[in-house]
Amino acid sequence: MPTIKIATWNINSVRLRAPIIKRVMKEMSPDILCLQETKCPDDVFPFDAFKDTGYDHIHIHGMKSYNGQAIFSKIPFLSTDIHHRVGREDCRHIAASFKEFDLHNLYIPAGGDEPDPAINDKYAHKLDFVDEMSAWFPKNYKSNKPIVTLGDFNIAPQEHDVWSHKQLRNVVSHTEPEITRLNKMLESLKWTDAVRHFVPSEEKCYTWWSYRNRDWKKSNRGRRLDHIWVTEPLAKKLKQHEILTSARDWEKPSDHVPVMIELKL
In CA terms, which of 3, 26, 60, 124 is 20 to 30 Å from 113? Predict the structure, then answer.
């Protein structure tokens, strides 16, 4: 039975980190690799750096210095799309359709530092973004449609998705308003959180460690901000997952690490 590997990674600059992107392409060998925070306008995207990688199908939408996304695929696209969210054109949602499923690559806003939408527009933007996605998916799909949505959601929803639930309850990425909204989005199409399908909720699971930690591995103050969700038809086909924690130690690393699932098709 054929399988397909799908990976997501907040790369924090596609041009700066092209060498380690190529390393992931070689070592993890995903069929589809989705990037967030490419920080690169489309007209200067480094296509030449990836021309011999086997990823002949590339869908991008980027801007200078901020945000931006890319989908690298060994599999041909049936179609691609760009979506603008919450009245802004800030490169946070691109999509691609394949024969077996539709795929949505999301970069949910980080939300700033103050968890109060009345005084922090970044946090308000984040909450509005998730609300919009929760409404958008069921308006455009039925739950029996095979869909993958993934990316840097910038929310660690479960107690053991953060190094200390008690200390981070009022820290943006683990606040109750964010968690409540993300759970509503999860329920919108009865998504399956693919990583937690394999990793029990009582086990710690992280995909991000701050650059501020001098020894990230020793302190291990991580958060699970990067997610892959699948609808019910694909949940039945989940085979395995991988979080490439070692990538956090590579030269010029991102503060996020790649997350990948494998599906039996």
Answer: 60
SS3 177: helix
Question: Token pair of 169, please?
Answer: 């309850």
> How far apart, in whole angstroms, are the C-alpha atoms of residue 140 and residue 135?
9
Phi, psi of 100 (to 5 degrees): -95, -20
CA distance 174 to 195: 18
Nearest to 95 by CA among 59, 140, 131: 59
Q: CA–CA distance from 243 to each of 8, 179, 200, 234 (Å)? A: 10, 22, 15, 19
Partnered with residue 35 across adjacent β-strands are: 9, 70
86: tokens are 């919450």
Q: In sequence order, what are the residues at sequence separation of 6 or more whose Cβ sits closer than 8 angstroms to the Cβ of residue 259?
A: 7, 8, 9, 150, 195, 207, 226, 227, 228, 241, 242, 243, 244
Distance between start and end Cα atoms, the chain? 7
Our count of domains for the chain comes to 1
| DSSP state at residue 116 | -
CB 69 within 8 A of CB 92: yes
Q: What is the pLDDT of residues 4-55, one digit of tens each?
A: 999 999 999 999 999 999 999 999 999 999 999 999 999 999 999 999 999 9
Instruction: Find the CATH number of the domain harbouring 84.
Output: 3.60.10.10
For 180, the domain range is 3-264
Q: Cβ of 202: how many Cβ atoms within 10 Å?
A: 8
